[in-house]
Every structure is written in structure tokens, then in C-alpha cells.
Amino acid sequence: MRPLFVVLxxxxxxxxxxxxxxxPLNSPQWEFVHTRFLNGEPYQFxxxxxVEAPPDAEDSLNVPxxxxxxxxxxxxxIVVVADLNPIPQVLRFRPKAMRPNLGFRMKLQxxxxxxxxxxxxxxxxxxxxxWVNAAGxxxxxxxxxxxxxxxxxxxxxxxxxxxxxxxGTNRLRVRVxxxxxxxxxxxxxxxxxxxxxxxxxxxxxxxxxxxxxPISENPMLSFDVAKETQFKLEGRxxxxxxxxxxxxx
Amino acid sequence: xxxxxxxxxxxxxxxxxAANFEYPLQPQQIAxxxxxxxxxxxxxxxxxxxxxxxxxxxxxxxxxxxxxxxxSRRFGEQQRALIEQATGKKVIxxxxxxxxxxxxxxxxxxxxxxxxxLPATTQGVKQEGEMFSSNMYRLIGDWMRDTSVVAPNQExxxxxxxIGGHELEFLAFKGHTHGDLAIFDHTTGVLFAGDLVxxxxxxxxxxxxxxxxxxxxxxxxxIPFKVLVPGHGQVTQDDQAIGQTRAYLVWLQTILQQAAAxxxxxxxxxxxxxPVDFKQVALAQSExxxxxxxxxxxxxAAQLKPTQQAE
Lengths: 249, 311
Prior knowledge:
The complex is a heterodimer.
Chain A: H1 2-13, H2 30-37, E1 43-45, E2 49-52, E3 56-57, E4 63-69, E5 75-82, E6 89-95, E7 101-106, E8 112-120, E9 125-134, H3 144-148, H4 151-154, E10 158-164, E11 170-176, E12 193-199, E13 205-211, E14 220-225, E15 230-237, E16 242-248
Parallel strand pairs in A: 1-9, 3-9
Antiparallel strand pairs in A: 2-4, 4-7, 5-6, 5-8, 6-13, 7-14, 8-9, 10-11, 11-14, 12-13, 12-15, 15-16
Chain B: H1 2-17, E1 28-31, E2 34-37, E3 55-60, E4 63-67, H2 73-87, E5 91-95, H3 101-104, E6 115-117, H4 119-140, E7 154-155, E8 159-163, E9 166-173, E10 180-185, E11 190-198, H5 210-221, E12 227-232, H6 240-261, H7 266-270, H8 284-301, E13 305-306
Parallel strand pairs in B: 4-5, 5-6, 6-7, 11-12
Antiparallel strand pairs in B: 1-2, 2-3, 3-4, 8-9, 9-10, 10-11
Helix pairs in contact in B: 5-6, 6-8
């Protein structure tokens, strides 16, 4: 009985027979996401934007998400949106001189489609995504740092490391200590890192990141940098605290 | 539209078939006076109602001892009704092996009795019980109806105690959680190992310390048991399930440490292929994903170096 049911259901939900540009994840919020975060600009769902996340979130405060964009030229900007989150926009990433790949962790308030859209130079958004089930509550809890009160000692502290990957490129992993409070926990205002620039040797701009409230506390970011081994990180939060760090292999 | 209607009818009939919420409890005699209700080696679902865990009972002269009460009030009630009907004796004591929801959420059915546990278990139930319980409503739905958290009300006394003609030894371990109670019946040779041992079902790690867990398994090997009741999976007569749990944990620890040392991100670690040795182990890939979420953050943080920062 059960397999038959599943087959019927999946045939009902499958994209064939629907309009060509309908969301493979069937997000009830897709049109809103398109209008609000992609400015209503032309888009296509595209398997070249690969998004990885576990199907079930073990920890709604720390859902690991990673994307890789392969086979698209001149990616200008990538935006990540969790459609059903109370604050849907997660981050914007503008790779200037590194691969359009990123790993990060985010908070989910409930199960949600997570869409990743990469805009190419021709103005078209290429969209991939994945659905994550979650027990939820991730956005309305105070950060651990805020509830324990010891975030002030570590605010803005950066730890990092650089590895050579088997394909010869380098991986930069960075953790910035910050409560990343969403403003949705009672009496705790929004407090989050707003932007972060990754610079290479000689101050060359490698990537720009805009981070929003759903990014997990003490953001942990994984970048696929080409051959660079020395980095500077510069950024600030919405209270004007600066982030500045130098990373060497 | 017709298709949609058909699907709705099917869904309705599926709901109806589970509407009586009867757990398929079949007592399995594993030694003299000793029985196990063996759960499926599955994850929680609305189909299995959370009957994914082994519970047991020992029928003594003075009455019945129950070891773990299952995932819901309904389970605890059906378990107690079955035991008292099948044995013609009253349950006199309950023991809870550790504080995970599939092991204690049936406690309501025994709230008139002494419910024994290690102090760390009782503390864990008080701290995390409500969170577990609301998550279980999400996972198994109506099977949970009217379930609420009942914490153990007695501290398990360690060492040997003769109860109704059975010489029982209560042993405190840790590693799967902060408090893992094992019960060895010297009279029958049965060892109730709780979730320190999994058999053909991947070990779960939400509160695990793998080093402590491996040390506990070494100590279990020294117990001269004839029958071993794992927390999940089939009852065995040998130590093969202990060996399998140990091998799985060693593999898990190794791949997590290597991944952290190579700068991998969580999703990359989650897709690590399962080795041939564990291909038959139920839920290995999904438990690996969960274990990465539990254990990887500490390991990867240890690989990061402080940076030079302007003050």
C-alpha cells in the first residue's frame, strides 16, 4: 500500500506537466522570493547550482548548507533564501576572485525550501535548492552567547585555517565569534554581522559577503580560494563593531 | 483532480488502518523469567509509532521488573497491560537505562511505582524531557496523544541486589549519554546493555562521548553474560554486537578527525561513503549525518588557529 501511495504522490508532484519554470521544490513562497530577493528578474532553475544540506536538520540553530556553482561563467552574485523562515534572506555572496562555492550554517524556524540563486553577467538568475525538514524554533531563541552573557569577551574574534585540497586549490575556513541575534527572541535586539570582505595578498578583493540574521551564531564559513594562502578579513556588524583579521597558512 | 481524490482516499485509509494505535507487542522469551519486546531497527515514524527500541521485563517471585518504557504513554500502557496479563503478576519496579525519549516516555503508565535511574538520567529527563517530547509529537504524531514527561523518582542503587530470587547487578557507565545504566542478571546470565550496544543498527550520538563509550564497551566485554539485550536490534548470545558497535564508533571517530584535519565542511563529511563492513547496518548514512551535527563542531574548531587582529 505504502509504495503505491508514494509513487502516486510523487507523480502528482513531479514537475513534468507543469509550467517549465515552476519551482522543483514546490515552494509556496517562490513567487514572493523571486519578486523580493531576485528583484523579479529573469531566472531559470538550473542543476549547475548544486545545493547540499541534510534532509533533516538535527539542530535547527546550526543547519549546515553548502553550494557549488559549476559551469556558469562570470557569476556576479549569489543569494541564499530560506523561503519559510520569518527572516528569509540568509546571505549574499559576490565572488570576485574565488570559486562561487560556499559552506555555512544557518538557523531554521521550521522546515523550509532553501533556494540558492546565482546571477550571471547576462542578468539571469540560475536557481538551485534543497528542502530541509526541521523541528524548528531556530530563529526565536536567544544565542548561547547572549544567554550566557560571555559574548563580550570574544566578540569579533576570528580563528581560521587554510588547507590544500586534493585538486590543488586551497580551502579557507573562518569562524567569527558573534551572537548573530535575530531580533526575534523577546527583548534581545537584532545584532549580527552585516558584511565581510575577504582580501588576498596585496589587498586584492577576493569576495564580498552580506550576512543576515539567519546565519548561525559564531559564523563558520568555508571558501574555495584558488592558490591564495594569505588573507585579510574585514567587516562590521550592525552596531558598528569592526572585524579585522589576518590569516596565513 | 481524480488522481488527487484517489490519493486523498488512499491517505485516509492509511490513517484509518493505524487509528487504533496498537503496538505489535510480541514478548520474546530470551532466558528463564526474562522477556524482550523487540522494536524495529528504524527511525521514528508515524508508521512505527516509535516502537524502534527494545524494552524488557524480568518475572521474579515478588513481581515484575520492567526495563525501559518506550516512546509514548500508549506504549507504556500497552506494555504494562500485556505484562500483567501474560504473567499474572504485578509490575513492582521500573528501571530506565538512559534519558533518551524512546526509553522513558512510557513512564506515565508506571507513575504509581518506583522508577529507578542513574542521577544523570533523571537530570537529563528534567532538562531535556519537554524538548524531546515535543519533537516526538512531530515525529510520530497521534501515537503520542496525552504523553507527558514523568521523571524517574528513585536513584538506582549500584551493585548487587537480590529481588524475588534474581541476583541483579546494577552498573553505571557513560559514553552513549552521561548516565548509561546496564543491568546484569547473575541468575540467568542476561545483560541488559541499553544503548551502549546497537545490533545491526547504527549507533546514535546526540549526547555521546566516544572515548568514554569505547571504555564502557571494554568493561561490558568482561561481564560473563550468556544473553545480551542491546538497546536496538536483535538479542544475541555472543559479543558480536559489542564488537560491531565498537568498530562503528572507531570508524566514526576516525573519519571525523581526518575530515576536520583536512578542512572539510559538514556537508562533505556527511556524504562519507559507508564502508562495506557496515552496509548491512540499518540507518548508517542517516545516523552518520546526525553524528556529524553532534560531534564535528568541536573537532573542526580544534583545527582553527587564532588570527592576528587589530585591537
